[in-house]
Fold:
Amino acid sequence: MAAHQASNLNKNAVDLLLTAETAALKALDESGLSRRLCARRCEAAAREATLAQMPTAAEIESGAHLRVPVDVNAMLTTELAEFAKLRTANDLDGLITRYQLRESGCFAQIAQNLLFQKPSHYADAVVAKLEHDAAFMASMKKLVEPLSSTVNAP
Structure:
């Protein structure tokens, strides 16, 4: 998107991209944000772990006593460490792939620093590019594939 926008506005694509990435990463430093994003991810993982261990109708009928332990504190500690590792490495792609960054100011900063008037204009431009550029679509699929694997993991 930076190259496309730079071409339209006669700007340097590398400069636009670097500025946008730096601003997006800085937006992730907001107080309490990493904990909130990690908690959301842990919530989904805990839900999946719990559902995977739920008893069948036959087990319930037989009176089996089942407990479904989920150590959310350990999950959160691990997730906070992963977030910190990605943030320290300035791995914006990794953060986007792993966390629900729409709950942050990250995308607004990208839009603003790529010189879109509104974040919705940036979103519209991304959708249009996805619809008309097969190579861009393939690169985005490759980027989100790890997220899809994580979400659909047992």
In short: The chain has a mean pLDDT of 88. The chain has one domain: 2-151.
